[in-house]
Structures are given as structure tokens and as C-alpha cells.
Request: fold
Amino acid sequence: MSDTTPAAETAAPHRYTAQLAAGIEHRWQDRWEADGTFDAANPTGDLDSDPELAARPKKFIMDMFPYPSGAGLHVGHPLGYIATDVYARFQRMTGHNVLHTLGFDAFGLPAEQYAVQTGTHPRTSTEANIVTMRAQLRRLGLGHDRRRSFATIDPDYYRWTQWIFLQIYNSWYDQAADRARPIADLVAQFADGTRATPSGRPWAELSAAEQSEVLGTHRLAYAAQSPVNWCPGLGTVLANEEVTAEGRSERGNFPVFKANLRQWMMRITAYADRLLTDLDALDWPEAIKLQQRNWIGRSEGARVDFPMHSTGGQVTDAAVTVFTTRQDTLFGATYMVLAPEHELVEAIVPAAWPEGTHQAWTGGHGTPADAVAAYRKQAATKSDVERQAEAKDKTGVFTGAFAVNPVSGEPVPVFIADYVLMGYGTGAIMAVPAHDTRDFAFARAFELPMRCVVEPTDGRGTDPATWDDAFVSYDATIVNSSGAGISLDGLGVTEAKAAVTTWLSERGIGEGTVNYRLRDWLFSRQRYWGEPFPIVYDEDGVPHDLPDSMLPVELPEVDDYSPRTFDPDDADTSPETPLSRNADWVTVELDLGDGPRTYRRETNTMPNWAGSCWYELRYLDPHNSERLVDPAIEAYWMGPREGQPAGGVDLYVGGAEHAVLHLLYARFWHKVLYDLGHVSSFEPFHKLYNQGMIQAYVYRDARRIAVPAAEVDERDNAYWYEGEQVSRLLGKMGKSLKNAVTPDEICAEYGADTLRLYEMAMGPLDVSRPWDTRAVVGQYRLLQRLWRNVVDEATGEVTVSDAEPDEETLRALHKAIAGVGTDMAELRFNTAIAKITELNNHLTRSGAPVPRTVAEQLVLLIAPLAPHIAEELWSRLGHGTSLAGAGFPVADPALAQDPAVICVVQIKGKVKARLEVPPTIPDADLEALALADPAVVAALGGAAVRKVIVRAPKLVNIVV
Reply:
């Protein structure tokens, strides 16, 4: 750091110090807020009537929602916020109307658990956390439009979350039109007979409960019995993504079990194809697109019905339906496997084991029912990830039932096994062990037969008993596949697939179909701190949606915020929600159009994803109480335009950890709103950018317990804490790891502008990088040198001159302007800082007063990165208005280029000439110049030139 002793401060009372920076920063933050400097203008109607706004291009820049944690921010949190602020400031200076604000994703489990532990209402603690975070973010000088900020817990906000839920609830997906339509359209089709009811009875003859049940099979939001992840230790169900690979809750590390419960679901699967196809219209990282494609998991294959064998079990008229992408191997199916949760399991299990049942198939149980019950209980303790792990031993049990292979007519035993999931396909598979690795391992474990139906091309022969693993190939010939009026022998895989699909379809026992890995979205939680559902139930259990006039349904006050929890290992339990204990709220008398009646409210709440599914729209029109968003405002900020055919936010910055869930859910909600005519854009986020992570060293003692990083000493290439040697490993930054550094600390020691510069200079924005407090001083010194180039440290007077800059300085300035402008536009802030530093160092080395024209443009260059010091210097240079609206410097192309560069001419890799050429010389001109150079002519000595490789303007390589 610079000299800050009392003597130095007396000699240089106007030196740029942390104390001076704090005063400057606070003053400019107050002024920006008072002047509404960053308030973005909305169109008030047609843009033709607002020529000033129409003349300015727009930029909508967003960060992913922060959660207002009680721990506050550490220096890793604001990395993305600073980056978007730099970019937004740059865009304003290049003439854009910029919308940049920040709200808070404030519902969720952390606040609820804190309430349970302390007795503090979640709203109280959450709002206090928001106040703290807003103060921390303000201190960083973030140029947000604060008029547009909100939290998802604001009733004025979640009123519209509930309204959107009702739009989804009151919609169905019309496959013929390939879009969502109001449920009223479907009711009309049932009523006039255009569409038959499932039972064939006239719509008017169905009871209200029957009509509700029929509509529930079509609604985009529906309640249904569903296999869920039940966590007794937390007292709630969890999404798959909230369960670890070990089958435990991500929060609390409690066991998680599979259970069938009535839950609210979102029919996101209806949009699977559009969610896939429309990725092509987005400017997203390819890695994120790939994750979404894999999550949706589209695969083409066939549905095949396997009838139950008449002597196998209790059911003789049932069939097990499977989805397969390898219908060409149907003759090789020697057994079947159902997921333990499959609905047919109990119905097909016989009273006793069939005669001759292999002992290995029974699991040591006396009856099939006992074996199945025991295995189901065992499978319920495992997560989907654990069940599908390739390396795990294959486990399962015979159900005692047999199905019939539809092409061969042979009976095949039906097993249950945990490697088959209800969440994919039909929850049942035809097992072809000779040509599927998992089936091969299962067949070996249970001594099941294998049949080779795809001829190996690797010389292993056609007897699977001699194989070490399955033979899997899409480029081979089908064998051993004739019977039941069909022969696939001699066909390739593609031809065999087509042939068997046609055969199945003609007989009504199968058809070609598309399957998806994507499952409908589990949309309810047994928690208090979430959005209430705008749904009530009548005395018959029929759900009714509430009219808009009754929104929002506000969360009631409760004494006990926690769901009922149970013994973490007791799977035989079921949820009891906090809201269900509030009888005065649950039971309500309402008039929904047919007179006052008593209803029961829905006591589940929405998941924390709900509020973040649409917040970009609320930023546009945050105080509109009449509609979700004004159409003209939405079209202006998010509507489709040239280069952005899907519309959406211009830049969305956040962590790659949200690659699938948040982004997929938000896209789904947005598409429903688009189909219903509420928005003009069919995607919410046009450009996505994933920032890296700021990491920090974690120090652990011999017990592997983290120790305070700030108190660790480095001596002799080792690390010591209180006299004990500790280990060091680079990892996350956080309070629990005792390595967190708060932005408040850095701001107090160096100022906010220094922190901003350091975080942007650490490396490329999309790459993780380690935090090093000792390195912060480098950017602090850059700002001190910048200050000294404009302000006299002793007197505080401006020292710039009115003299014209020399040519060298002009060229340095315009090279910096050109480079910094390009870097800013492409989010390369680290290299922009390097170019600014180079220019500033050039001015420092000259020793002469800096020309005013150069100083002003230097200040404008650094303004997006270090806005407080830039505003202060801009003001001291005589400008009465904020530079936030000043134009960004524009480079003179002639001055931005070096006047001449040296071009090296090589023959056989050896330098034969050096030519001084213009930096913009065309390839053809440079080639002609090189070949005509006397030294080159002499070196060639008349040899024929085979090829000339030109890398203008610096290299010509001649091949002879």
C-alpha cells in the first residue's frame, strides 16, 4: 500500500486513499439515487410517438436472482453483479436505453429453517437480510434502477405468480395446434361432442367430480398421485435435484424414500419438443444447451405391449407396456423388469412361486408377495442416481409372473429391480441381455438366458455364454429373429427397426413413438414459507380456482412454521404441512359464482422455483396492478427483433449450476404465456453468460476441521495455525469454511472502485479464479496513479494542461480506446483493464501534465469499471453532469493502428528480409512486395516458388 503515515498525509492531504475514496463513493451513490441516474425509460405507447426513445437502442441486462442470506455477501457473490454493472454502464455510454435492476428470490427453506430454530417469523428475518444485502450492493456502486426492485415475498409480486399458475392450470396443450389453449376450449369440445369423453358418456351427464377428473388429465397444472422423494427428517417431499447421489437430502443429509403422494404437477413434458428445438434460436453456451438437451432426453423408438402369461399370476388380461429404442432386438428379450413402484406389480404377483422357480430369483422369501414387499422397501431408500449407477451390483427379485414375448410367443419371467425407474419410459423394460450392458450384468447375476440377435462383428461368436459383456452395435446384422409371421434375419438395424414397428402397429400391440427423459415437474412442497396455491376444494374434493379478484392468497400468520418431522428412518409416514394446522385459514366460506359455500384451501405451497420463473417480466412493469405486463412495454424490452428471433433478455448472467432447472422451468412458463397471448417473445433469455467462481484457500487442522484462513501464517513453504501445521486446498468461499472475505472489509481498506477493478482484473469472467487479498493493492495503485495524473495531491487542484497531445500519446490513447471498447462489448474486462493500465502508465512515465483531452477520455474509458473515481474526476475537470450519459470514446482508426510494422520474410524457415509495411496492407500486396525485395530475389537464386504463405502484416513464408 502507499504511505499513509501522518507525515505523508500532511504532505499530500489530497492523496487518493481509502478514506478519500469512501467519501467520494458515498457522495456519488447519493447523487445517482437522488437524480435517478439509472432509471430506465419505458415506452408510454407506440414508439413512433416517442422519437427520443425510438432513436436509442435498448439493452435489458439481468443477473440471476440472489437469495437474501443472513450471512450477507462475501467477495465471491458480487462477481457477476459487478460484471453486469460494468457492461450496463458501457452500454449507456454507447447510447443505449439500459434496463438493469436486481430483486430478491426470498421464499424457500433456509428462512423457514431459521424461523424454526429461532422463532423469528421468516418474513422478519428475510426482510432484514434484504436490507443488509441492499446496503452491501449499494456500497459497490451498482447502477440499478431501484424503482423496479422487489422481492418474491411481496404480496403484490406473488399475486401475479399465483395468477400465472392459474393461467397454466386453466390451459391444456393442443397437440394439433402445437400450443397451449384455454381449458374452456376443451370443455366446449367435450360439451358439443367434438371430442369424446374417455367413458363415451355425454359431458353433461358427468358429475362435477367426474368432469374435474377428465380435465385433470389434460390441464398443464394438475394434482395427481405421484411417486415422490419423501424425506421424513425434513417433513417434506423433495425434487430429484434436491436429493444427493447417496439418496439423502441435500439440506440436512436425511434419508430420502420413494412414496406415492398426491401432489401438484406441471405438464412440462407437453413442451419437450419446443424446449429442444428453440434452443437453436438462443445465444447460450453450447455446454448449457447440451445439458438441457440431455435432461429432456428425446429418443425415438417403439411402444411394445407384452401380454401377461395366462398361468403366471392373478391377472390374465393385462399387458406390460415398454418403450424401447432397440425394437430390432425384440426376439432377444428373455425376461422383463418393472420398476419396484410400477402399478402392475401387486396385481400380477401370484400367491405362490411357480413350480421350478430358480432359488436365486426368490431373494430367500417363501412367497412372491413377501419377496416383492421386502425388495420394494429396500429400493425406496435409494436415490434415482444411486439406483442407476453403472458400477453397482444388480439386485432384484422375481415377481412370480410371466409375460409373453409378442414376436416369439415365448413366456418370459417378470422381475422388479431398482435399476429401472418409473421416471423414464413406462417404468418397465424388455431385457435383451446379449445386447445391453446392464441387462447382461443382471442376467449373469440371476442366471437368466441370453439370446444373440445382433451378429457380433468383433469375432466373439454368437454364443453369449462365452462373452464377457454384451455386444452393443447399431451397425450390424440381425440374426436369430424369425417367427410369428415376421423375419428380421439379414436386415441391418435401421431396416429391422422399421420392419418390426410396422408389424407391431398392424397388430395393435405397439407403435413407433418418441420418448423423453423429462418428467412432469413436481410443483408442491409441504412447507410454510412459499406461495400459497390459489386453489380451494369443495365438499366432494373437487378443486376450484379462485377468481382474479381474490388474489393474492396471502400467507397466514402461524405459530409453528415447521412441517411435522418424523424419525428420519421411518419411511411409513406422510406429510403434515404447517398450513394444515391453521384451521381458521384452511376452512373458508366463499362465493365463487354459485352462492356462498364452504371450501378447504390447498395447504401445500409452491416450490421456491415459482417466483424465479417469471421475474424478468416484472422488472419491465413492476407497479402494474391491472395486468401482468403492458404489451407495449414487453414488446419494447423483450420482443423479437433482428438477430433475436425468439426475443428475450439481451444478457442474462449467472452460475452454470442453474443450467437445467431454473432455466428449463422459466422457459416453460414463458412459452405458456406466449401461447396464451400475454407476451410477444417465446423465450425469456436471449443471451446467457455463465460467470466463473471466486475460490479461496481452505485450511484444515489434523481433525480435518476448517480453521480461520485470516489467522494462518505461511512459513518455510508450510501453513501454520496457532503453532500447528495445517493443510491448504483451493475450494469454495464461505462462512462455514472460515475463509470468507466480505466486500465490506475490502471497501473499508481500499474503496469500492478498487474491489470492482480487482474482481474484473482477476481473469476471464467465465473462468474460476482464486481470491488473493494481497493482490488487491495492484488495482488500488492504478487508481492512485490515475488520480495523480489529474489532481495535485498537495493542493487538490486539477493539473491537466490545455496543450495538444503529441503523436505518441495520441496513438496510445486511440489504441486503448479501440481495444477497451471491443473488450467491453465482449465482456473481456480483464484485458480492458490491462489496456487502461498501459495507457495510464504511458501518461505517468511522460512526467508532463496530462493534456485535458487525453485525461477526459481516459476517465471515460475507466468509468464503467471504477465509476466513483471517474465521476469525481469528470466533475473536477469541469463537467456539471454525470458521465453516466456521456458518450464512450470513439477511436480514430488511423491513430489506433501503428504507423508501420515490421514484416519478416522467411525462406525455408530462415529470415531473409525485414520489410516495413502499413499495418493494413492486403495479403496480395504484401506477397508481391516480399517477392520483389532484392534480398529475397537473391536468396531464391531463380528457384521455383511452390507456395507463399502470408500472415499479413507480420509474416511471409516462401516455400521453394
Observations:
- The chain has a mean pLDDT of 92.
- The domain at 898-959 is CATH 3.10.20.590 (Ubiquitin-like (UB roll)).
- The radius of gyration is 34 Å.
- The CA atoms of residues 18 and 750 lie 5 Å apart.
